[in-house]
Write a structure and sequence with these properties.
By secondary structure, this protein is α+β, with helices and mostly antiparallel strands. Helix content is 30%, strand content 35%. The protein has a 5-stranded antiparallel beta sheet. The two termini are 23 Å apart.
């Protein structure tokens, strides 16, 4: 079992060098989300997308997130998110797409993944070519 501290490097190892195939990365992400993480009480998975200018440049962000609630002993400490984020130039079509879907709104991860994969807003960027993939973990 991995710890939340190992999550980023573990996931990057699972992805390998083939980061241009969004569908393959998505399948790897889904499998990673099924794996237990030390201290994790509930799977907290987010799929989100939209056009944002976080860096000063407008880009379409297609982001798969696994969130970890971290405890020190039995006390809440903080949360961390592992992002698997594809970036695209914001076309007219992508400017009209926004998603924010949390796994906790579903009975189980299979139902969540099935729901997300059937969203038209998810299918569109899944079939495009990203300009960049960023995998990073941050405290929130």
């Amino acid at each position: 079992m991995i710890s939340f501290k190992q999550a980023e490097s573990y996931f990057k190892d699972r992805i390998g060098e083939d980061t241009n195939d969004i569908k393959k990365v998505w399948e790897t992400f889904k499998n990673f989300c099924q794996e237990p993480v030390e201290g994790e009480e509930e799977k907290e998975i987010l799929v989100q997308c939209g056009v944002y200018d976080f860096t000063g440049e407008e880009l379409f962000h297609f982001d798969f997130v696994r969130q970890f609630t971290v405890y020190d002993e039995d006390e809440y400490s903080h949360m961390e998110q592992l992002h698997c984020e594809f970036l695209f130039n914001p076309t007219v079509e992508l400017r009209n797409i926004t998603i924010e879907e949390w796994s906790m709104d579903f009975v189980n991860l299979d139902d969540f993944f099935h729901h997300v994969e059937n969203l038209q807003e998810f299918k569109i960027p899944l079939n495009l070519k990203a300009i960049k993939l960023e995998i990073y973990q941050e405290e929130i």
